[in-house]
Design a protein that fits this description.
By secondary structure, the chain is of the alpha/beta class. It contains 15 helices and 16 strands. It binds pyridoxal-5'-phosphate. Its cofactor is pyridoxal 5'-phosphate.
Length: 445
């Protein structure tokens, strides 16, 4: 049943749960971005999800444009994923021994991507943390290069913000990360070839790896300029550094082969290491890092670089992930791409009509909207930061009131699924004129 699109939705029960949550959990949430700090108000406590829809504790339905921050490519409670998980659970939930579904999931990842081998872990953070350790172990070097605005999980050495200038010694992005942890991290502006060339010319022999989001989605969607990833791969190779492509968000989402399917597969290069998460866990905690056989061979127990995990390759998580990937056919990707085109076009038109300056940027089916940015095109974090977040805030709440759950931050990708059918899309489209009007008023204010 679809919601009616009421414009005032009570959030009494969510507010009560939020208050309870605050007493026992810092900020009332288990991951900061779920709180509404950037937009104000009360996050909704969800009790169920089905297809493209979520239902909250107050009984309201929402079209979900978060999709669990990426994983739910098939939509919520997909019957075949559910059945596979239910079947797996009857055989126990964790063995602490090798099991078949982890091999099958690894085979599926190796078949879809250019990696020779993978190691399964439980979160994207673990995947990038382990990939960095492996790159350092393999090269015998310490320095890591990353880009401002790229998020790779809450790994100490990668929680670094850029200062201004071309290559700054990173400043820790949070208290609790010792200066020593980011001393060997260099942060550059995204899409800036000259900055990359300069830092490799100066420090190339010290650089273990360059890590980048394959197509950044954590500063809003800021795709690589054509050929940028290839340039990074070649630059790393020239200096004996490893190219680590983080596909935790894009992997198995923007195409069958992730972002690499959109660039590397055609341009004829491959990353030395890749990281995956989100979609490959089918809504469960499963992630992976993988790459060249000679690099992966350095990993314990085959090699000297230690890495481990009690729940790594968990049979339920790997069953959910494997079933999801097997169901993620070309038709699924075609549907999600088309839905993204329909929706992003409608958003752009609604904002145009209301006179709200904006930019819609895409990477395959991932897209985001920059409200009142001071640039013509967002190519890096500075450009993304030039938007007016108060305009997004007004838009966000108007959409929420009309039953559309957007990511509660202007710096996030919007996500769709195979379950976002015409009905769900129309519900979002119907909410747009009023939300665009609210955004226009925020622009004036
Ligand atoms: N890398 C990228 C590109 C991500 O988007 C994320 C999470 O959003 C991570 C790594 C960290 O993954 P996780 O939240 O599973 O630790």
């Amino acid at each position: 049943p679809a919601p009616t699109g009421a414009t005032t939705r009570s959030s009494t029960a969510s507010a009560e749960w939020f208050e309870r949550a605050h007493r026992v959990t810092p900020g009332g949430v288990n991951s900061p971005v779920r709180a509404f700090n950037a937009v104000g108000g009360t996050p909704r406590f969800m009790v169920s999800g089905r297809g493209a829809w979520l239902t909250d504790v107050d009984g309201h339905d929402y079209v979900d444009l978060i999709c669990s921050w990426g994983p739910m490519l098939l939509g919520h409670a997909h019957p075949e994923v559910q059945a596979a998980v239910q079947d797996a659970v009857t055989r126990g939930t964790s063995y602490g021994t090798p099991s078949r579904s982890e091999v099958e999931l690894a085979e599926e990842i190796v078949a879809r991507t250019p990696v020779d081998q993978v190691r399964l872990v439980s979160s994207g953070t673990e995947a990038t943390m382990s990939a960095i350790r492996l790159a350092r172990g393999f090269t015998g070097r310490d320095v890591v290069v990353k880009f401002a605005g790229c998020y790779h999980g809450h790994v100490d050495s990668l929680l670094a913000e850029a200062g201004s200038g071309l290559a700054t010694h990173a400043v820790a992005g949070t208290p609790g990360v010792p200066a020593a942890s980011v001393e060997a991290t260099l942060v550059l502006p995204y899409n800036d070839r000259a900055a990359v060339e300069r830092v490799f010319a100066e420090r190339g022999s010290e650089i273990a790896c360059l890590v980048t989001e394959a197509s950044p989605g954590n500063m809003g969607v800021v795709p690589p300029e054509p050929g940028f990833n290839q340039f990074l791969a070649e630059t790393c190779a020239r200096h004996g550094a490893l190219f680590v492509s983080d596909e935790v968000m894009t992997g198995f989402r923007v195409s069958r082969q992730g972002q690499w399917g959109l660039d590397g597969a055609h341009e004829g290069w491959r990353p030395d290491l890749m990281t995956f998460g989100k979609v490959m866990g089918g809504g469960f905690p499963a992630a992976a890092f993988g790459g060249r056989a000679d690099v992966m061979g350095m990993l314990s127990p085959q090699g000297p670089v230690y890495q481990a995990g009690t729940l790594s390759g968990n049979p339920i998580a790997t069953t959910a992930g494997l079933t999801t990937l097997r169901l993620a056919t070309d038709e699924v990707y075609a549907h999600v791409d088309a839905a993204a085109t329909t929706l992003s076009t409608a958003v752009g038109e609604a904002l145009d009509r209301a006179g709200v300056p904006h930019l819609v940027q895409h990477d395959g089916s991932m897209f985001s909207v920059f409200f009142a940015p001071r640039v013509d095109r967002v190519v890096d974090f500075a450009g993304a930061s030039s938007q007016d977040t108060s305009v997004f805030r007004a838009f966000f709440h108007a959409m929420l009131d009309r039953g559309v759950y957007l990511p509660p931050s202007a710096f996030e990708s919007w996500f769709l699924s195979a379950a976002h059918d015409d009905h769900a899309l129309q519900h979002v489209i119907d909410a747009l004129p009023a939300a665009a009007e609210a955004a226009a008023q925020a622009c004036e204010g």
